[in-house]
């Protein structure tokens, strides 16, 4: 009798436990760890408007891992304050792009080893701007891109990706360059500790950015380009289309930062440019921007637009006058015998052939390329959700080095 009693108790207890387990199972399942060790409970997860649970598995949504961006800024030559600014950014959910776009692309000269820094940059660019527009990307390299590079980049951007190999003739010595002289020049500049003075690849890069990137077949179908470099940072929302702004306002060239060039890298660039202007007077319009690059006596003031960020017209770079100017410089040999940069070359071309109305300062785009900032000011800084401090903007922090306010002060034609 006793055994029957305890058997009955055991059966009842088993039934109670089974019912309790069935009632709790949905909750327990929701608390199981995911593959990355985090609980699947989304109470504290980022609030994506279209997450996979709402739209069905996949649904074309890209959720790359968070990227933590750290910027270190120093004040003065001997820093007494070092501020660390961090932002965690997520590539936004892929949605249908806005209806109105123009024929444009981002163009990025990069290498396989820059994958990580480039992904950080692209995560910000997508989050701050391109997730709404889905503009395509053109990636260029003098060596083949790896499959890993292509996959990792395609995973993080919303626009179509094009990966191109630079033709050998665009990344080598032309037959009119004395390579022995070029080698001796590199050695001399390295001994004088001139930045990138001893680098051969840097010279090929500057020459390529000055006169060839826009001739790559992958660029043929585009009218506008936005140059991006690995490791740069975008600190503010870009809530409009800069490409369309340029097109609708008849602009040809846009910049964020302008500074004075290091003269030891370009000792004969100005004289070579003056020779070109004397030989091609018919190409130089009466109204131009030469006042931006000259001092009161008509000499070169070294001002240039920092070309690691530029949004511009490919038609301008493909024009007969710009190509003639580049060819003149190329045959002079300064890309190899000195260390001419693409920034002063582009800037002198813009100054000769365009006027102030053709050029735009994107003051409202928060942009960092070490060690310099362009940061929106006042309410603009707040409204665009910027994380850059406006006092760090180069035209405020170092007015003597910056040329931006000089550009602003120029009168329109």
From TrEMBL:
Pfam families: Glyco_transf_15 (PF01793). Keywords: Transferase. It comes from the Eukaryota. Residues 34-59 are annotated as: Disordered. Belongs to the glycosyltransferase 15 family. This is Uncharacterized protein. It comes from Coemansia umbellata.
